[in-house]
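Chapter summary example.
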Amino acid sequence: MRRAAPRLVLSLGAALCALGVALFWRANRPGSRTDGGWGAYTPLPADTAYESRLTLSFDDRWAVLWTAGHVAGAGLVVAGLLVLSGLAGWALGRSRARR
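The structure predicted for these 99 residues follows.
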């Protein structure tokens, strides 16, 4: 069990990172509900009329649109990286304690 626990935590962190990247990529795909292309001038469906979005503009050169999919994907990547960095710190501390 002592060797299985770090591998389980490693796979959990990697899975969280992969899931977050996949979710962020899916939210960025062209043709998604937040595309903003030619469909920007059509009326919104009733279920998307009250969605919350955050748009950041920097000197009118480019804008960043974060939807719920972007935020959830980024959050999963951050959680996965926290799990992986915790595991790395544990492994480093364990190897230093052996000396």
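To summarize the output: The beta strands are 54-58, 62-66.
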